[in-house]
Write a structure and sequence with these properties.
- The mean pLDDT is 97.
- Helices cover 30% and strands 16% of the residues.
- The protein has eight helices and eleven strands.
Length: 249
Amino acid sequence: MRDKPRDDLGDVVPMPSEVLRVVSIVPSLTESIAATHAHLIVGATDWCTHPADLDVTRVRGTKNPDVELIAALAPDVVIANAEENRVVDLDALRGRGIAVWVTAPTTVDESLDSLGRMLSAIIGDVPDWLTSARAVWSSPYDGMRRRAVIPIWRRPWMALGRDTFAGDLLARIGIDNVLRDSGERYPRFDPDALPDHDLVVLPDEPYAFSPGDGPEVFAQPARCVSGRHLTWYGPSLLEARDVLGRQLA
């Protein structure tokens, strides 16, 4: 066995010395492993869209994974996230004797460290793309700053609040979340009763905001952006700074 690898929760995750079968129930983590070791992935969610040619067993969604099907795939480890996946499902997997690795980053730096631990534990080293992603995010932003509201859902309206990966990523490219001091990570809000802001950032996931669905509600300028580049941590971090910078210009 490996020398007591620990996930983001600090839990020891018992895995064999060589991991050969992985089920991922987090889209960004599926992409992270598949970027260099796609052959290890035997199962992924219906929402795991990258890489587009990933041909594996689909195990439903992040909130309703098919535990029995996952168990039948006999994975060496299941990759999960503390926010995206439910504790009851992860406990059900552990109850079947399956190792579960849980990630839980809330900042860009934490995500890079988290990916380093996870990938080292599963594939045995850190891939070149992760080293390059660290370099992309190593330089500080020194341009004009703007204040923004970042909705993530409609009916009811919800937005990024405190301690979120996406909020930290935006702050690192000059976009300050006006709801970052909220008592909740994803507070509900009234579009007519918001703090002063310069901009509304509308990602296309988890809610599929688009030029025809969202901007019309707000008085301030709205920008539709790639939800993958805003909320996923993985190979998308290589592009996210440039992609979002252009979309928010």
